[in-house]
Amino acid sequence: MNYRHDYHAGNFADVVKHVVLARVLTYMKQKPRPFRVIDTHAGAGRYDLSGLEPGKTGEWQDGIGRLFDAELPGPVADLMAPYLDVVRAANDPGQLRYYPGSPVIARQLMRFEDVLVANELQGQDFERLKGEFRRSKTTTVLNIDAWHAVKSLLPPKERRGLVLIDPPFESREEFDNLATAVAEATRRFATGTYLIWYPLKHEVAADRFVAAVTAQSELEFLDVRLSVCAAFAGLGLTAAGVLVLNPPYVLREELEAILPLLSETLAEGAGHGYLLRNAVLER
Ligand code: SAM
Question: What is the CA radius of gyration of the chain?
Fold first, then answer.
């Protein structure tokens, strides 16, 4: 396991994932019944953008670095506020030094009665995560294999919840592992909302993954993709997707407003754009 999220925290792919996460949680909070968030690959929780690793890649500068200072029109600013307010709350006024990861964003957007389970396998990141939540009474931090977590933690006792699955995609088998895990998870907890992040390096492989997951679970879904420029050999990640199973009914409309602006703000070259769909593309 070599992956360290410190190199990538706050990049365009993190921004897309966290914007969707914030919108889903904002919706879930509108109903009084408590819910649970299970973050299977939680990372360290908070990242110092002035540190060595983020400095080496500089990826955050073209992600949250651009969005933090962007002038957004009123309706989009309102939709982005839950996410951007959490980023601001992690920093001194007007400064951008720290980037909150998914468990910190989730916790900030949840209520006291909602339960967060944040899981991280890598030892050092797990220790940081544990430190982050040491005072939180309604957060459990675990150090188990995510593929075991989806089996042992589902269904949640609240019977209302969001499962965030955000693997590092280090191995070629990751799409297959992920599809198997989602099948298992949705079999145990069919009414949950699932937010699944995936890289878009090979479009055919990504399409095949989305088709497999959505066919096997037969749940409603929203597939969200954002590309910062056209991909070509040698370039790093230029596009990423978030597959939402059982999405809130308002999510599509909200993202239709957000994505054009997000795509413009994060664009790095020709071929940038976004895609939003709730039916699988026929190839
Ligand atoms: N979700 C985080 C966020 O949005 O801030 C980022 C997570 S990062 C993309 C993926 C994390 O999964 C890494 O911290 C890595 O150490 C961890 N990881 C890798 N394999 C894992 C496994 N089998 N079980 C649990 N965690 C794993």
Answer: 17
